[in-house]
Design goal:
The chain is built from ten helices and ten strands. It is an alpha+beta fold. It has a domain of about 150 residues. The strands form five sheets. A two-stranded antiparallel sheet has the order 1-8. Helix 5 packs antiparallel against helix 6 and helix 6 runs parallel beside helix 8. The radius of gyration is 21 Å and the shape is globular.
Length: about 290
């Protein structure tokens, strides 16, 4: 949602996308935590290459589709899904109060935004943009908090939940006793994002009769649309996905892009479920701890 919509919430009006939200907060704590160092932030959340690779090309094809996507590894952010630029600060992207500060995340960057320059610099080659107000100035002589809202429920989450359920129940094109299919919802979400708008999204058209492929696409759209909003942790567990996936980043040096491993993550099968807090077991002795904990 745009600045004007967030600021309008001061008067009690929700952005059209938001169904239920928390209070309006005039603050800059999020920006202090997540702005790049050159903008006086702590750069705490570094999106992974895994997430960046999940954004398709603007033509709708996954970047792994070598025949149709048009992805170029030497210019990895060109021609991508517009949501990539809206949600993530990558090398060469602009940010800051006037959105004119170029953020250089390369290893050989001349600013502290570069890979591993400082403890507060990116470890992955990326910074988070989504949820932040770029108008915030963290300079001690001109600090200017901005209005923030924290959505608890927004319509896109409901649409994606419906698409997921509809695909499981009736397949990509089925509607049951309702008006819209999973295909209809996903097409609308991607079109709103600017994906496939110039070519009628041929990738989506190619899988609209394939339930398994549509399931994969719906799950990926959830990953993109709801990123940094606290859903992915639970989605992976309810889908019983393998949680052992190395977090990757991008090392850029002398104009060369090289994927790197950043964090080796190892989970055991029982970790799909969390532990029951010991305080709860002490309250009720018949309550058993989940396996493995």
């Amino acid at each position: 949602w745009i600045k004007a919509q967030v600021d309008q919430a001061i008067g009690g009006n929700n952005p059209a996308e938001v169904l239920w939200r928390g209070a309006v907060d005039n603050a800059l704590a999020m920006e202090e935590d997540h702005f790049p160092p050159s903008l006086l932030g702590r750069g705490l959340l570094n999106p992974t290459q895994n997430l960046v690779d999940a954004f398709p090309m603007a033509n709708g094809y996954p970047i792994s589709d070598q025949q149709n996507a048009g992805y170029v590894s030497t210019a990895p952010y060109t021609g991508r899904d517009p949501r990539l630029n809206a949600y993530i600060i990558y090398n060469g992207a602009t940010f800051g109060t006037a959105n004119t500060t170029v953020i250089n995340t390369a290893l050989d960057a001349t600013t502290n935004d570069g890979l591993n320059k400082l403890e507060t610099s990116t470890r992955t080659g990326y910074y988070m943009r989504k949820l932040l107000r770029n108008e915030v100035n963290l300079n001690s002589s001109s600090r200017n908090p901005q209005q923030h809202i924290k959505p608890r429920m927004r319509y896109t989450e409901f649409y994606l939940a419906y698409a997921e359920a509809a695909n499981e129940a009736w397949g990509p094109l089925g509607t049951g006793s309702h008006t819209y299919s999973a295909y209809d919802v996903i097409k609308a979400i991607r079109r709103r994002a600017g994906v496939g708008v110039n070519n009628n999204d041929p990738y989506l058209e190619s899988i609209k009769n394939d339930k398994a492929a549509m399931q994969t696409l719906i799950r990926n759209e959830r990953r993109l649309e709801l990123c940094f909003e606290g859903h992915r942790f639970w989605d992976l567990r309810r889908w019983k996905r393998d949680l052992t996936e190395t977090a990757k980043g991008m090392l850029i040096q002398a104009g060369t892009y090289t994927p790197i491993n950043v964090d080796e993550r190892v989970y055991q099968d029982h970790m799909i479920y969390g532990p029951v807090p010991n305080t709860e077991i002490l309250k009720f002795s018949a309550l058993k701890q989940n396996t493995g904990w």
